[in-house]
Design brief:
The complex is a heterotrimer of chains A (295), B (512) and C (321).
Chain A lengths: L2 H13 L2 H18 L1 H4 L40 H37 L1 H17 L1 H12 L4 H28 L2 H8 L4 H13 L1 H24 L10 H9 L8 H28 L8
Helix pairs in contact in A: 2-4, 2-12, 4-5, 4-7, 4-10, 4-12, 5-7, 6-7, 7-9, 7-10, 10-11, 10-12, 11-12
Chain B lengths: L5 H17 L7 E6 L14 H10 L4 E4 L4 E4 L2 E5 L5 E6 L13 H10 L9 H5 L1 E8 L2 E6 L18 H6 L2 H6 L7 E7 L3 E6 L12 E6 L3 H9 L5 E3 L6 H6 L3 E16 L10 H10 L2 H8 L4 E3 L22 H10 L7 E7 L6 H14 L3 E7 L1 H9 L5 E6 L6 H8 L20 H11 L4 H18 L3 E14 L4 E2 L14 E2 L1
Parallel strand pairs in B: 1-10, 1-11, 14-15, 14-16
Antiparallel strand pairs in B: 2-3, 4-5, 5-7, 6-7, 8-9, 9-10, 11-17, 12-16, 12-17, 13-17, 18-19
Helix pairs in contact in B: 9-11, 15-16
Chain C lengths: L1 H27 L5 H5 L5 H11 L5 H13 L13 H36 L4 H15 L2 H15 L12 E3 L2 E3 L4 H34 L2 H8 L4 H23 L1 H15 L4 H11 L2 H29 L7
Helix pairs in contact in C: 1-13, 5-6, 5-8, 5-11, 5-13, 6-8, 7-8, 7-11, 8-10, 8-11, 10-13, 11-12, 12-13
Classes of the chains: A mainly alpha (295), B alpha+beta (512), C mainly alpha (321).
Chain lengths: 295, 512, 321
């Protein structure tokens, strides 16, 4: 199969798979919404100059006591829930994509080198990766942040990256080991192509497809992780919007019957992650040669 | 369940069942209480927080005790005391008191206890321990304590220095001492399952007479909404620290009764006055004061469960002044003051605060930042757990922060020497002056009160100091006094009066 | 096999050393226990005395050496907050965490594998599509949110199950168990479900994926054509091979279980190790945090080694030399 045929097959399969289309649409809407947050949200919930306590704990607009523009109500600091959700999603996506980009690049490079050169480099990095992996990203990120404490979104991204790169490194290494055996790589080597050229031009592009699945799955995991960390109070600081923190605040109010502070951010978070997972599922099936696709 | 023989299993199940049936029969004299923080240890000197002392007050007694709604100082293990000169305190001990293990209580135990205070391995009352020059025991029931310097509030502190049994404390393994209290208190520890509960039973030989409640089951639940859930489902009889956001719900519940009292603790903002910083200008300090809408904080952040404060000490404290008034909320005036001081565009400042220490602490800090933004001051919020916050206060690293205070000794002099005096490592002043506030007038006036033996003269001087700090210098910006909120199951015949220090002392609670 | 285990042991010790070193040095640069331990009224001089008592004034290397030496003797130092040995403090909480985690793993594994098989037999049946959709939800709802939702529904709204704590417990030897009382079991249900749900969904999806691959293999088709009973085909022939990735991944999930038990215990105020860890993090109780991390490391390393051995038993093709 030529590359173009693979591409067109992918596209037609994609268009015939409603869940995948739905998933990617959800992702698209969230990304667009986050980029356009200042346009969509009625207020910037973290602009201290504008924010007042005048309308605190307002219920959603369809309930008694609800008023516009607070469609989904407000929280205990008078922040509009809808606006905070929009800005909170932005944080989720910044952390999600930030980690995938940084940890992904680093992990792919490590995996590429380890798989290609083998030897002590390989065994060292893979032992390290095994250890990291068995400690689990969640536990590592949690402990790292527990130690470093709050220091802004960047610190959260770095802490998660320190734990997360191994996913990419392991997958990449495995993929490189397989691709290395292919005839065209052997041929390229035989014609005397340099290491650098071989790595970047031949190995990297051909070994990359399994990484796409990892990217999609990881994006979902990282977004949930950021929410969990912020929920526990070791994630983003209170001066930054976050879905996890919204839920943490709302948790104090569940017995007071103010469900809107928890249900809306919770549902948003789940919707975003479901969207990513739908897409990830499709990608996994597509790129897994072992599964027979239904006709 | 591999490895556990079936017979054992059945017998344990039966035992559990019997325990369940047994429970209600003794309900009349037992009590289940949910409190807001867990005990750290059962060593009465190892934790100087009120949460810890609240547990210890049941297992141990001090030489003196505090009772009643105003926390009146009354005899306990000492029947009376004398203060013959500046440095000397003489206590006459009660006779015929025994510890839980049967050992008699004597002056040697008092001596041992006070010496133990200065051992950093086991004590958080090092400061009290180090102020003592000598302890003499002329006989079994008299103790003479001499302090190194004049400490006017020495006796005021005696209700929270709990007396331990010398013999058993020395004989037992130090780890055992940390978990198994042997005191003279009204209750004996039955079981302490960390993270779950503390159970205690009445000391039938208690010197004040056996307490009426025979069995107390204390369940520390740190999460406030969970504490509410335990109360609403009827699992506990009394709950401390009812969250303000759920107070209305408790009040509306026909099965529950709420109990509230003004807390002694005041919440306030502290600022440094380093030269060149905008905060060094009294006009700026005044502007910040006037920019804050404290009424709205009390109404919307504290949900009505706070009282306005115009000073740091509360009414029963020596040094409190009735005539102090809050500056009015006036953002326009605040802007003018900022302009006069040369900051028409405002300035930037970092506002620090704890997020797990005071009622709605994080929310108050957020609200303050909002008010300041409205007059042009950009407050950068820095909110952190108390375990990180307090070391920063102690090191004097902060610029502008929220803190709360109440003094267990009811003496403003002690408070000011820690919070307001210029930091001085030699003399031990200003240990919690977190923003390095320094003013020679305040220091001089405060130091002059240390040698005053005459109580009235000293009180006048402290009141003048208080006025100077609040009106002339605006050393701090007071916000409010918290309100302590409790809830009690209505139909169980429990009579409970909250204490000013938030301690839960079960010998004071009765049940019909 | 013997040399393999020996090699894993050496590796484990190296990992533990590295972990201890990292923890130790990071902690020495963050947070200061002295202020709390000396009491709020202490003077600066008195604080220095406490610092000396804790040995925090010594050079870093010396402190680490002392720490290692003591750790070798089972002494991980005293908690700054409770002033009792940190190891005992954590081990005391172990039964609570173990019962929670064990129940959760049991629920996750049995239900996950069972449903996974069910779904893979008739992938396109309606009820199985619903199960798959639910499993998608299972991996998309973060554990903390599941916990809160369960509390909202079963405790606040319906009032059926208690939202916190362990209920009544019984002491059997050194082990304090909540499994033997009705109240204990009732208290266990919500947190165990919370902890299990995500893992359940993961295992379900893995089993299904594994089964689908295996069921497409030639030897299974042969087995069907020979007219063997479906039960025999599925359980004797297919499942064994499909389980290999499931067991591998499940083994690697122990770190996740430990991590999420921290979250679950916090939400349900479960008196276990995770709850203690979070409290200790808030209180900067460094000896307890370091000890917890070391214990978690030991558990994870042991579990991984056990899983590797199990793996070799299921799949005789694999040899460790």
């Amino acid at each position: 199969m030529t590359r173009r045929r693979i591409k067109s097959r992918l596209l037609s399969n994609y268009l015939h798979d409603p869940p995948a289309v739905a998933g990617s649409l959800i992702i698209l809407i969230f990304v667009a919404g986050s980029l356009a947050a200042p346009l969509i949200a009625p207020e910037n919930p973290y602009d201290l100059e504008k924010l007042t306590l005048d309308h605190f704990l307002t219920p959603p607009v369809w309930m008694d006591g609800g008023t516009m523009p607070y469609v989904l109500g407000t929280d205990d600091q008078g922040r509009d829930i809808f606006s905070t959700i929009v800005y909170g999603c932005r944080t989720s996506l910044i952390v999600g994509f930030g980690v995938v980009l940084i940890a992904g690049t680093f992990g792919v490079l490590v995996g590429l080198l380890a798989g290609y050169y083998g030897g002590w480099l390989d065994s060292l990095t893979m032992r390290l990766a095994d250890t990291f992996f068995s400690f689990s990203t969640t536990l590592m990120a949690f402990l790292l942040l527990g130690i470093f404490r709050q220091g802004g979104i960047l610190v959260v991204i770095i802490a998660i990256c320190m734990a997360d790169w191994v996913r990419y490194a392991r997958t990449m290494r495995g993929s490189v080991l397989e691709v290395k055996q292919e005839a065209y790589i052997m041929a390229a080597k035989a014609t005397g192509a340099g290491d650098f050229r071989l790595l970047l031009k031949h190995l990297l592009p051909n070994a990359l497809p399994p990484i796409f699945v990892v990217v999609a799955v990881d994006l979902a995991v990282v977004i949930m992780l950021e929410a969990t960390l912020s929920f526990l109070g070791v994630g983003v600081p209170i001066t930054e919007p976050s879905l996890g923190m919204m839920i943490a605040i709302g948790k104090n109010y569940i017995y007071a019957g103010m469900w809107w502070m928890i249900v809306f951010p919770g549902a948003t978070l789940v919707l975003l992650v479901v969207g990513i997972n739908l897409f990830a599922d499709w990608l996994r099936e597509e790129l897994n040669p072992k599964i027979e696709r239904r006709a | 369940m591999v490895g556990i023989p079936r017979k054992l299993l059945t017998s344990v199940l039966c035992a559990g069942l019997i325990l369940c049936l047994w429970g209600p029969a003794q309900a009349q004299t037992s009590l289940v209480v949910a409190v807001d923080s867990a005990p750290r240890m059962m060593n009465p000197h190892g934790d100087d927080s009120d949460a810890g002392l609240s547990f210890m007050a049941n297992f141990f007694d001090g030489l003196l005790q505090r009772k009643g709604p105003e926390g009146e100082l009354l005899p306990a293990l000492a029947e009376r005391w004398e203060h013959p000169d500046e440095f000397t305190w003489k206590f006459y001990l009660r006779k015929g008191v025994t510890f839980h293990n049967g050992n008699p209580f004597t002056s040697e135990d008092v001596k041992f206890t006070f010496e133990r205070l200065s051992d950093p391995e086991v004590s958080e009352f090092i400061n009290t321990g180090k102020t003592i020059e000598s302890i003499e025991c002329p006989d079994d029931h008299t103790v003479i304590i001499k302090t190194k310097t004049h400490i006017p509030w020495f006796a005021n502190n005696m209700h929270q220095i709990f007396i331990m049994d010398k013999e058993s404390t020395e004989a037992r393994d130090p780890g055992e001492v940390m978990v198994r209290p042997i005191g003279t208190g009204a209750y004996k520890l039955v079981e302490w399952v960390k993270g779950s509960y503390v159970t205690m039973e009445a000391n039938e030989d208690y010197w004040e007479g056996a307490p009426q409640i025979k069995k107390v089951d204390v369940r520390p639940i740190t999460e406030s909404s969970t504490r509410f859930a335990a109360l609403a489902s009827g699992q506990v009889d009394i709950v401390t620290g009812v969250p303000v956001e759920l107070f209305d719900k408790v009040e509306k519940n026909p099965k529950l009764e709420v109990s509230r009292r003004p807390a002694r603790r005041s919440i306030f903002l502290a600022m440094g006055n380093k030269e060149g910083s905008p905060l060094a200008d009294v006009r700026v300090r005044k502007a910040i004061y006037m920019a804050i809408n404290e009424d709205e904080i009390m109404e919307k952040v504290m949900r009505g469960h706070a009282f306005p404060a115009a000073q740091i000490p509360d009414p029963p404290t020596i040094g409190y002044r009735k005539d102090l008034k809050r500056l009015p909320f006036d953002p326009e005036q605040a802007k003018k003051l900022l302009e006069e001081a040369g900051y028409p565009q405002g300035f930037e400042v970092t506002l620090t605060g704890p997020n797990d220490r005071y009622v709605q602490d994080k929310q108050i800090v957020e609200a303050v930042a909002k008010y300041l933004a409205k007059v042009g001051i950009k407050a950068k919020l820095d909110v952190k757990p108390k375990s990180i916050f307090f070391p920063e206060v102690a090191e004097g690293k902060l610029e502008f922060y929220l803190i709360g205070w109440f003094d267990g000794t009811f003496d403003m002099g002690r408070t000011y020497s820690k919070l307001g005096h210029t930091r001085d490592e030699e003399e031990g002043y200003g240990g919690l002056n977190g923003a390095n506030y320094s003013d020679p007038d305040i220091d001089a006036l405060l130091e002059s009160t240390f040698d005053m033996v005459d109580v009235d003269e000293r009180e006048k001087a402290l009141q003048e100091l208080n006025r100077m700090a609040m009106v002339d210098k605006i050393v701090w910006i007071p916000l409010h006094y918290q309100e302590d909120l409790y809830a009690v199951q209505k139909d169980k015949g429990i009579s409970f009066t909250p204490r000013p220090d938030q301690w839960m002392v079960y010998k004071e609670i009765t049940r019909q | 096999m013997g040399t393999y285990i020996a090699r894993r042991l050496v590796q484990g010790i190296i990992v533990l050393l590295a972990v201890s070193m990292i923890c130790f040095f990071i902690f020495r640069y963050t947070g200061d226990p002295v202020v709390t331990m000396a009491g709020l009224y202490a003077t600066q001089q008195e604080r220095e005395e406490v610092r000396r008592m804790l040995g925090l004034d010594k050079p870093m290397i010396e402190q680490y050496g002392l720490f290692l030496w003591n750790a070798l003797h089972g002494n991980f130092g005293k908690s700054y907050v409770t002033r009792v040995p940190a190891l005992g403090l954590i081990l005391e909480r172990f039964p609570a965490t173990f019962e929670l985690a064990f129940t959760a793993v049991l629920i996750a594994f049995c239900t996950g594998v069972g449903l996974g098989i069910l779904v893979s037999i008739k992938p396109y049946a309606l009820q199985n599509r619903i199960i798959m959709a639910a499993s998608l939800g299972g991996i998309s709802i973060p554990t903390f949110l599941i916990g809160i939702l369960l509390i909202m529904v079963f405790s606040v709204f319906l009032g059926w199950l208690p939202p916190f704590g362990r209920g009544e417990t019984v002491q059997v030897g050194f082990w304090r168990t909540g499994l033997l009382t009705w109240s204990g079991l009732k208290h266990l249900l919500l947190p165990a479900l919370t902890l299990a749900l995500y893992q359940l969904a993961v295992i379900l999806r893995l089993t299904r994926a594994g089964m689908r691959e295996v069921l497409a293999e030639e030897y299974i088709k042969t087995a069907w054509s020979k007219g063997l009973y479906p039960f025999s085909v599925i359980f004797k022939h297919a499942l064994r091979n499909a389980m290999i990735p499931v067991v591998t991944i499940s083994g690697l999930q122990f770190g996740e279980i430990i991590a999420f038990s921290i979250v679950t215990e916090t939400i349900f105020q479960w008196p276990g190790m995770g709850n203690l860890l979070l409290t200790s993090i808030y209180e900067t109780d460094q000896p307890v945090i370091v000890t917890y991390i070391m214990i978690a490391a030991v558990i994870i390393i042991t579990m991984n080694t056990l899983v590797d051995i199990l793996y070799a038993i299921i799949n005789p093709k694999i040899r460790y030399d």
